[in-house]
Amino acid sequence: xxxxxxxxxxxxxxxxxxxxxxxxxxxxxxxxxxxxxxxxxxxxxxxxxxxxxxxxxxxxxxxxxxxxxxxxxxxxxxxxxxxxxxxxxxxxxxxxxxxxxxxxxxxxxxxxxxxxxxxxxxxxxxxxxxxxxxx
Length: 135
Ligand SMILES: [Zn+2]
Fold this sequence. Notes:
The protein is of the alpha+beta class. About 15% of the residues lie in helices and about 35% in strands. The chain has a single domain, classed as Nuclear Transport Factor 2, Chain: A (Roll). Zinc ion binds next to helix 2.
């Protein structure tokens, strides 16, 4: 007996520096709700990395959620950097997270700089909309 079923030691794709199983995994499995807008943002990035369309839909406000997800299998996500957060804490009703996500699409480097907005919906954080930044 050297292992148990809980032996996944992979670090979380969101770049938090902690293990996936104690970072975004409980959110993606919906066993826990992300406590802050930033945590939800990180979990959504991880869902993009893992092509988890179900979770991306779940974490999107139903009024804004696209009917069909267009996840591009050619996109390889390379990293997430949180630039700034406004509100989005446990006691807030809305929150904003500015981030840069780097990727490669068909081998070509791409950089997404977005200001995402989040709101409380059914007692959990959801993504409402994002504004691209040209900064
Ligand atoms: Zn994570």
